[in-house]
Amino acid sequence: MIYIRERTTVPIPNVYSLFQAGVTGKSYIIMERVTGTSLGDIWPSLRYIEKEAISAKITSYIDQLRCIPSPKAHCSVSNKPLRDRIFWT
């Protein structure tokens, strides 16, 4: 997350701790709480122009993320692009 914060204007919460717990070895991130209203909760009530502005901001963030050089430390499990119903990478 620090890597992204240093290279973009994408809002990133502060990370306080990262650890694996117990026998399962599940990973956990303790991070700053992000206040606000869930976009999914208010989307139906927004005007078209507001939806356009939000979509443009998200597009800007995705464009910035795509331009970041890989730190050569992480990759997808399948080493293939992520397929998402809304955003394709």
UniProtKB/TrEMBL annotation:
<dbReference type="InterPro" id="IPR051678">
    <property type="entry name" value="AGP_Transferase"/>
</dbReference>
<protein>
    <recommendedName>
        <fullName>Aminoglycoside phosphotransferase domain-containing protein</fullName>
    </recommendedName>
</protein>
<dbReference type="InterPro" id="IPR011009">
    <property type="entry name" value="Kinase-like_dom_sf"/>
</dbReference>
